[in-house]
C-alpha cells in the first residue's frame, strides 16, 4: 500500500488498538512479537483521558511506549473536531453507557445525546468530518458484549441508536461478538466489535453490491474472513430501524417481549438489519494459561499466597449455601453461589481479566495458579500476555494499576486479524 491508513485512536487506554494495527517495534502480536508485521496503518492522533482520577497513568504509559507526538491527555468532549486531523479510520474502546437521546426545543438540532456519554463524542467527530467534506472512511470500535441487549427495560435500544446514527451519517455497519479464546488466543474475553464503512469507501461498495447480507455475515464480510463461523440459526432475522433517534430512544423494543432483536453477528445497510447467531469455527493452535507463565525464579515473593490466607481464598472461590443478614435492615436471607475452579486450570485459556485483579487480598475473581506446587497470583507481565501485549508494556506504574489497565484492555490479536483483513481488501482494490 503506497499510503498508510491514517488512524485516530480515542479512549486509547494503554494502546491496544495501536498495537494490533501497527505492531510493536515492527513485530506482530499474533506471533508473540517474534515475527515481523507489514503494517499498513499509522496512528496520527490519539487521546486518553480518565475523568475519575488526578493521576493520568494510562496516558503516561501510552506516551512512554509510543511517544508524545500526536498524543493528547484531555477530555475528548473539550476537543473541537477541527483540532483532530482528517483521517481514514477512527478506532476506540468506548465505554458502555446509556445512549438515550431526548427531544429538545431549545436546540436547533432537535436531538440531544445524554450528557457526558462518550458515544456522542464519536458521533460528533464523524459528523463534523462529514460536514466538512472529509468523511472518515472506516470506524472500528470495541465494547462489552451486553451492548447488544441494553438497557434492561428496552433490550437492544442502545445498539439500535448507535446503528441508526451511523446509518444516518452514511455508514454500513458489521458487528460480531468475538470471544478471543474461541480463535486460539489466550483469554476467554467476549466483546462486541463494530466495523462501519462510509458509502464513499471501497469496502462499503463490496458489502453492498452483488452479495446478500447473509453472505456478508457468513462468508464475505471482514469479520467472516477474519473469524470464520458456523451458522446456529435456521433463518436470519431482518428488520428496519424506523424513526428518528428520539423515536428509537422512546419506543425501540417496547413490544419485543424483553429480548433483544440483535444476535451476535449482523450487518446493517441503510437501516435494514440482518442478524444471525453464529459459533466460532477454528481448528488451529490454542494458547493456554500455562503457556503464559513466567519462570518460577522470576516471580516476586509477594505474589505467592501465604498459608494464613489460603482458607480465605478457598472460601471465596468455593460454593456457598448459607444464611446472611443485611446489615442495614437486619433482614436474613439465604445466599447461594456456585464454586469456581481453584486454582485456575493451566491447560485452558485464562478467564476474563477484571480491573480488580491486582493486590494481594483474597478475592473470588482474581486468578490463582499452581506452579511447582505453590499457589500464586498472576504477575503484571502474565496479565499482559493474556491480552497479547508485549512484556512489561505497562511498566512504570504500580502493579495494581497495571492489573487495572489489563482489566480494561482488549485482546490485541483480535485487532490485528481485523486490521489485516481490511488492509488486504484495500490493497486488492488498488
Structural class: alpha+beta
Mean pLDDT over the full residue set: 92
CATH class of the largest domain: Alpha Beta
Task: Tell me the helix content.
Answer: 25-40%
Beta-strand percentage?
15-25%
- CATH hierarchy: architecture of the largest domain: 3-Layer(aba) Sandwich
- The CATH superfamily of the largest domain appears as Vaccinia Virus protein VP39
Output the radius of gyration. Answer: 23 Å
Count of helical regions: 12
Poorly predicted regions: 105-112
Number of strands: 18
Task: Record the SSE blueprint.
Layout: E1 5-10, H1 16-22, E2 41-47, H2 57-66, E3 71-72, E4 89-92, E5 101-103, E6 111-113, H3 119-132, E7 138-144, H4 157-168, E8 171-179, E9 190-198, H5 202-208, H6 213-220, H7 222-226, E10 229-231, E11 237-240, H8 245-251, E12 265-269, E13 272-276, E14 278-280, H9 310-317, E15 320-325, E16 332-337, E17 368-371, E18 374-377, H10 380-386, H11 399-408, H12 412-429
Parallel strand pairs: 1-2, 1-4, 2-3, 4-7
Antiparallel strand pairs: 5-6, 7-9, 8-9, 8-12, 10-14, 11-13, 12-13, 15-16, 17-18
Helix pairs in contact: 1-12, 4-8
Describe what this molecule looks like in 3D.
With 430 residues, the protein is an alpha+beta fold. It folds into two domains: 5-284 and 411-429, 3-Layer(aba) Sandwich (Rossmann fold), CATH 3.40.50; 294-345 and 354-391, no CATH class. 26% of the residues lie in helices and 21% in strands. It is built from twelve helices and 18 strands. The chain has helices at 16-22, 57-66, 119-132, 157-168, 202-208, 213-220, 222-226, 245-251, 310-317, 380-386, 399-408, 412-429, and strands spanning 5-10, 41-47, 71-72, 89-92, 101-103, 111-113, 138-144, 171-179, 190-198, 229-231, 237-240, 265-269, 272-276, 278-280, 320-325, 332-337, 368-371, 374-377. The strands form five sheets. A ten-stranded mixed β-sheet has the order 3-2-1-4-7-9-8-12-13-11, sandwiched between helices. The chain has a two-stranded antiparallel ribbon with strand order 5-6.
